[in-house]
Amino acid sequence: MKRKSRWLALGSCLALLVFAAAVSMAADVEPKAGQSVGNFKFPAPTSDQDAKYLGLAKAAEFTIKDVKAPYILVEQFNTTCPHCMAQAPIMNQLFDKVQQDAALKDKVKFLGLAQGNDANAVKMWKMFQKIQFPQIADSKSAWGDAVNFHPYPVSYLVDKSGKILWVHIGTFESADEALKEIKKLAK
Known about the structure:
Helix 3 packs across helix 6. The chain is globular and about 75 Å long. Helices cover 43% and strands 19% of the residues. The chain is α/β, with parallel strands linked by helices. The protein has two domains: 1-30; 33-185, Glutaredoxin. Helix 3 (82-100) links the parallel strand 3 and strand 4. A five-stranded mixed beta sheet has the order 5-4-3-6-7.
C-alpha cells in the first residue's frame, strides 16, 4: 500500500508541476514591436508639473491620445527592483539627451509606470532617484496587463495610436544605445 501511495503522490506532484509550468508559460508573452495597447488609460500624474510636461490640463487620468507628443517612452518598473534601480540613472541620462535634442524634445515624452507600487512609493522613488519626468503609480499593474507582460524594467516607444514601435527588456547598456533606437523611429 505504501508503494501505491508514493506513486500516487509522485504522480500528483508531477501533474501539478506540469500544470504550473503551462500556466506560467501562457501568462506572460514578451511584447513585440507592432503590438498595440490601444488608447490605454493611465492613472493620474502625481503633480500638476508632471501633467503640464505631458501636455495635460490637470493631473487626472489620461489616455495616450491626450499626451501632447507623437510618441511616449513608457518605462515599466518597480521601486524595489534592483535592475530598475540600475536603470534609473540611465533613464535620467536618456531623458536629458532627448531634452537637449531639438528634433526630439517635443516629439517624445517620457513616462514611468511603477507596477504594483502605490503613490507614496513612487514619490520616494522619484525623489531618491532624482527622476525629472513623470512617474506614476500603477498599483494594479494595468499596463502590464495591457501588454501581457509583467517583468521589469521594460521600455516601450509607443505612438499616438497605441502601437508599440520599440521594446527593450531589461537595462540599457547606455543612454546612447536607447537614443539611437528612438532617433530611428521618432520621425
